[in-house]
Amino acid sequence: MKQLFFVVLFLGFIVPIIGQSYNQDRVVLKNYLTRMYMNQPFEGVRIVQDYDHDYLLSAVFVAPSSSELVTNRIAQVKCSRQISQFLDALVVVSSETIIKTTQSTKDNLTINEITDIIKENSVGYAKSMEILTILDLESGVKCYLFIRDINEMRNEP
User: Fold this and answer.
1) Residue 146, Cβ neighbours under 10 Å: how many?
2) What is the pLDDT of residues 63-81, one digit of tens each?
3) Distance (Å, rounded) from C-alpha 92 to C-alpha 105?
4) Distance between CA 90 and CA 141 in Å, rounded?
């Protein structure tokens, strides 16, 4: 009976400690990556190394819209596009240049207006990434930081 009591007591202390370890590691990683981003802001994908892990970090800028759901979805789509391009997905870019020439009647000047239209299509598949944090920038734009362990990506079928 004493042995059962000690086993239950031991498990009662160990399980909460192990459960808190994951959360504490994630908070430390979040704080480190947030400081790194604030020190040198960027938009795109980077590989970040920790002591034990290599992470794929994606920073996405999104202007806030009418609902949080729409803003989150836009950030996820942008992140998927960035990751697909980073992982050598098929990317097709087409561009058009439209030149308008108008003449001013008042000063008898010719004004050239040039408009560039760039369309980008990418084909690829990137599994979802975890939102590490959302930063509110000074310009009113939100920066979403997405993260994924590279070793987990390699082990997937």
Assistant:
1) 23
2) 887 788 888 888 888 888 8
3) 42
4) 29
> Measuring CA to CA, how many Å separate 21 from each of 12, 14, 28, 87?
15, 11, 11, 31
Per-residue pLDDT reduced to its tens digit, 89-122: 665 666 677 777 776 666 777 777 777 676 666 6
**Is there a contact between 146 and 57 (Cβ–Cβ < 8 Å)?**
yes
For residue 138, the 8-state DSSP code is T
**Which strand (E) or helix (H) includes residue 8?**
helix 2-39
Q: Which residue has the tokens 């160990």?
A: 14
| Cα 25 from Cα 51, distance rounded (Å) | 11
Listed in sequence order, the DSSP H helices in 40-157 are: 68-86, 150-154
User: CA 8, CA 121: separation in Å to the nearest integer?
Assistant: 58
122's tokens:
């990418």
Residue that is written with structure tokens 């202390």 in the block? 13
